Amino acid sequence: MDKSQIRPGMRGGISSGRAEPAVFHTLNTIFMICLLVVTLYPFLNTIAVSLNAGNDTIRGGIYLLPREWTLQNYKAVFVSGTIYDAFLISVARTVLSTVLNVFLTTMLAYTLSRREYVFRKPITLIFILTMYFNAGLIPGYFLIKDLHLLNSFWVYVIPSMISAFNMIVIRTYIGSLSESLVESARMDGAGDFKIFLQIIFPLCKPVLATIALFVAVGAWNSWFDAFLYTSSKQELSTLQYELMKLLSSSMNSNSNPSVAAGAGMTKDSAAEMVTPLSIRAAVTIVASVPILLVYPFLQKYFVVGLNVGSVKE
């Protein structure tokens, strides 16, 4: 078409059509930047508070950078020698709980996903009922006691080896896999356990990575079970339980920090003072950093559809 034949209205339509994607990308970029700021600001603010002097934190106005830099808050967290032993206990319980929960729950989910298994529906119903009905804290405590798990490391691992919710999620994912994979493996003489280990388990990496992250975060952040079952045995205390006790003692000893800050304290002693707010920020960072270090290694498995193209119909 000759340029002279293009009417003014047509030129306007073409230019406006080209402008629409640019406007969309501009607004989308602004929105994503705002979302990024809203997401990162609480964490960056917590880091700034944890690195700021406790007496200065009381004044407020700490945003992205500390006003008075100090490591006193972290020194107060790590001054106790029990923190290091508790850290090792937390790492051990997190690793064991995650590995056993993922493997055993996946095995159960594969069993209940097989259509030829005649008891799969009633067993699934029983597991679903456990999500809605709970015996309560006291019966649970007596059950742990009867199993001789009190003041034992395995009280952190054994009760969490199977999860009904995780089983349903994994079973749903297994149900989306092509049945041709299992049928072809059976024709080659493979048994159920071999099919599970060599075919189903590798194909479930995306959902297993997600479940593993959920289980790991739950095991790492748990402290109430340590309070209930192992509080009388210091060597089995977890990191979260020790941090909770530290935060509680800090809040009790500094119940009125504004008075303590102005009660004739010298500049050096005031700089070394910790407050519940500063201790809480330091505890939050110490507790969250290990999980933040693990997350990037699991993120790549979150893409669903690893089995696309594995079967050619």
From TrEMBL:
ABC transmembrane type-1 domain location: 87-298
Localization (cell): Cell membrane
Topological relation to the membrane, as annotated: Multi-pass membrane protein
Top-level taxon of the source organism: Bacteria
SUPFAM superfamilies with a match to the protein in the record: MetI-like
Alphabetical UniProt keywords: Cell membrane, Membrane, Transmembrane, Transmembrane helix, Transport
Chief location bin: membrane
PROSITE patterns xrefs: ABC_TM1
Pfam families reported for this sequence: BPD_transp_1 (PF00528)
TM helices/strands, residue ranges: 21-44, 87-110, 122-142, 154-174, 195-220, 277-298
Family designation: Belongs to the binding-protein-dependent transport system permease family.
Database matches in PANTHER family: ABC TRANSPORTER PERMEASE PROTEIN MG189-RELATED-RELATED, POLYGALACTURONAN_RHAMNOGALACTURONAN TRANSPORT SYSTEM PERMEASE PROTEIN YTCP
Protein's name according to its UniProt entry: Carbohydrate ABC transporter permease
